Amino acid sequence: MSSGAEGSHGALMDAVYRRQRHIYDITRKYYLLGRDRLIRELAPPPGGLVLEVACGTGRNLIKVARTYPDCRLAGFDISAEMLETARANIARAGLSDRITVAEGDATNFQCASLFGRDADRIILSYCLSMIPDWEAALHSSIHQGEGRHSVHVVDFGAGSGLPGSFNRGLQAWLAKFHVSPRADLHEALESAAAKPGRSLDYTALYRDYAQYGVLRLS
C-alpha cells in the first residue's frame, strides 16, 4: 500500500471510529465471535511478546495481559482515534507497564522496529475484513522475525451455513462499516502453511459466521 493509500485508509478509519470508539467494545462483544477462544488458545511462552495488528481499543490486549500475566504485549493501529481510546483503556486497567501501543500500517510493518523485539504470537482479530490490501497485511504478519512465531486469525466468514436472508442482511450491514469478509482467507492460510516446518489449524465457526485459524511457523 502506498503512503497515499495508507494515509487515506487511516483517515477513513478515524472518520468511522471518531464517535464509535466510545461504544465500540459494548456493541461489538455481541457479534465479534471467536475472540475469546483465540485468547484462550494463544499460550504465549513466559516472557514472550504478543503483538496485535490493528489493536483498536485495546480490548484484546487487556484480556491477554490478564490471562497471561507473564507475557508482554504490544499493538498498533492505523487509526489515531482508536489509539487514543486504547491508551486510555490500558491506563485505566493499570497495564501501561506491560502493554505498549503505536501507530502503524498493517500492510507494511516490522515488529522489531516498532517495539524493539520480535513477536512470539501475532493476533489478527476482525481486522483483515477492514484492510483493503488484506493479503499484504497477512503477509507482513507471517514474515516477522525468524519464523518462530505463530499467527492467530479470527474474522468474519462467508456465512455459507447461515439462512440466506439472514446472511444477506448481515453482509449488507457489515458493508456499511467498510467490512468485507475474506472468502479467500482459508486458501491464503493454507498456501502459507504449505512451506516446510509450518502447520495450520483452521475451522469455520457458528455455521461459517466466523473463521478461525492458527498458522504455526516453526
Number of helices: 9
Shape: globular
**Strand and helix order:** HHHEHEHEHEHEHHEE
CATH architecture: 3-Layer(aba) Sandwich
Rg over C-alpha atoms, rounded to the nearest angstrom:
16 Å
Q: What would you call the structural class?
A: alpha/beta
Strand order of the largest sheet: 3-2-1-4-5-7-6
- Poorly predicted residue ranges: none
| CATH superfamily caption | Vaccinia Virus protein VP39
State which percent range the strand residues make up.
Answer: 15-25%
Terminus-to-terminus distance: 28 Å
**Secondary structure tally: strands:** 7
Q: Might you state the CATH topology name?
A: Rossmann fold
Highest CATH level, the class: Alpha Beta
Question: Which range best describes the helical content: under 10%, 10-25%, 25-40%, 40-55%, 55-70% or over 70%?
Answer: 25-40%
What is the averaged pLDDT score?
90
Give the gist of this structure.
This protein has 218 residues and is α/β, with parallel strands linked by helices. It has a single domain (3-216), classed as Vaccinia Virus protein VP39 (Rossmann fold). The chain contains 9 helices and 7 strands; from the N terminus they run H-H-H-E-H-E-H-E-H-E-H-E-H-H-E-E.
Q: What features would you highlight for this structure?
A:
218 residues, alpha/beta, Rossmann fold, 7 strands, globular
What does this structure look like?
- By secondary structure, this protein is α/β, with parallel strands linked by helices.
- It has one domain: Rossmann fold (3-Layer(aba) Sandwich).
- It has helices at residues 3-20, 24-28, 35-40, 59-67, 80-92, 111-115, 134-142, 164-175, 185-193, and strands at 49-53, 72-77, 99-103, 121-125, 150-156, 199-205, 210-216.
- The protein has a 7-stranded mixed beta sheet with strand order 3-2-1-4-5-7-6, with helices on both faces.
- The mean pLDDT is 90.
- This is Methyltransferase domain-containing protein.
- It holds the Pfam family Methyltransf_25.
- InterPro entries: CFA/CMAS, Methyltransf_25, SAM-dependent_MTases_sf.
